[in-house]
Amino acid sequence: MPETLPLEKSSDLMNEIHPKIIAFVRYYWISILIAIVISYLSLAPGDEFSRIPSFPNEDKAVHFLMYFGLAFVIFGNSILHFGIATMQQRKWWLWMIGIPVIWGGCMELLQQYCTTSRSGDWMDELTNTLGAITGFFVGRWILPIILKRKLT
Q: Which of 15, 37, 50, 143 has a CA between 20 and 30 Å from the CA of residue 61?
């Protein structure tokens, strides 16, 4: 039988976790909101968007732009929270690109296995990945310049 935590230790653990969750949401609320919007757009029935005009390869363009935006905003939130110097470390690159890529993969799997009107597509995941990588590198190039200009 697993050992249970005494009530005091359990509440101490919650007191440590709770402020961390609040801080995370406070710093990354825009990224979280974008992820929620992407989830809705990815999982809503396709006929909800039938009135929107379409063009050739619109699906791939939308996927690219959604994950470009998510990676760009995650990068921007991280710069504001941790500073520009910290963001130059390569260990952060994998994190800021990986989150949107994993999110995109989860959305494709959910479309395939949990919806009746959508289907997962490996080309969509490739497009999500390319959008996330591009969003990260554009953010890495543009955001420090913008922030430096605001500070001077």
A: 143
